[in-house]
């Protein structure tokens, strides 16, 4: 009855303990980890690039309230005031618009009008003004280039976030294999300790019959203690790597177990016909386009800003803005031109045009160099994958042969045909081959993920 209860408990524990595969861990990382939350936050923050570029084109509202001191009054009087409300906007095509509504009860006119413009009974004015760039920033050329630069920069950020997610998957896979390798090492160490325990029992039986050489039992017991020591070391490293893995993936599972990893077959070589369509290239290209647009916006730095001005003032005495506009009289109108040229304090300003051309050439060369680097990485990744797959197949063959050799040597030792040193050497060699095989599995699987990542096929494997 006790045995049945114990078996039921073990079965219940095993059923409740979830096993985690690499794909499940990656999906959990993409769902809950702090790293994915940081990437999502960065995605939202990237929208500031567009928002900040559009800020100069927002409507701007202004209001002021002034208590002027008039010639006929000795002190300020709250009943005599100027109140101004303004609304202005900069448009994309080099056009600036501004309208101002002024209400005054003082003897002095609104601040933007000449003293003779506001004679009684006019107490309210509506002013309109337009300004158009016609030379350096002709029809908003610089403004559009700056907006274009911001848009390219935002697109580059979006592609970069995709690359960040791919890097997150690869980092998760590396951390998985760090823990999974120690998990397998612990299982192998436990098996070796059981083997040496059985061998020690066998040696004790042979000793009773006098079929044992001097020092055999101490050697076996020494190897047994050595495997126990190695097992404890591996268990400690497993615990440490699991702390790192679970913290990184935010998997809060106290009964964490690994599912047996299944190695995927090597895919067929897929040639990338258009390298420029790859996500990594598009991120660099968008950044390159952003920089070029910004440099083009500065190309005509040596030209002055020339702007056409036009404005009109409507004066009235009605109580509301709408009534003032409806019944107002056009008293002032104006048209003119503005010329603005920033003078530099540095003589090197006159060399800026040449510097801008060099900077543009630099970015173009860097883009071409990065594109060639990615093309080379595509070829290298396939060569590495092929080599890792070949090494994996060879390691499985070596492991199979080594296990066969170990079994034969163990049987020969039991039959007394080989000394214990031969068996211990075979056991140590088998341990090394098992580690080499596990390392070959790790190298192949990580190479496979990098292969998919470079060809933009990695995220599709983990999309829900």
How would you sum up this structure, described in words?
The chain is α+β, with helices and mostly antiparallel strands and 464 residues long. It has 10 helices and 8 strands. It has helices at 2-16, 22-32, 34-46, 48-54, 141-208, 216-249, 279-297, 321-327, 352-414, 420-454, and strands at 19-20, 60-66, 82-90, 95-104, 124-133, 257-258, 305-316, 329-340. The two termini are 47 Å apart. The model is unreliable at 1-15 and 117-121 (pLDDT under 50).
List the helices and strands and how they pair.
Blueprint: H1 2-16, E1 19-20, H2 22-32, H3 34-46, H4 48-54, E2 60-66, E3 82-90, E4 95-104, E5 124-133, H5 141-208, H6 216-249, E6 257-258, H7 279-297, E7 305-316, H8 321-327, E8 329-340, H9 352-414, H10 420-454
Parallel strand pairs: 1-6
Antiparallel strand pairs: 2-3, 3-4, 4-5, 5-7, 7-8
Q: What fraction strand?
A: 5-15%
Proportion of residues in helical segments? 55-70%
* Main β-sheet, spatial strand arrangement: 2-3-4-5-7-8
Overall form: elongated
N- and C-termini, Cα separation:
47 Å
N to C succession of SSEs: HEHHHEEEEHHEHEHEHH
Give me the number of helical elements. 10
Measured on Cα atoms, how large is the radius of gyration? Answer: 40 Å
Mean pLDDT: 85
Largest sheet: 6 strands, antiparallel
- List low-confidence stretches: 1-15, 117-121
Secondary-structure-derived class: alpha+beta
What is the number of beta strands?
8
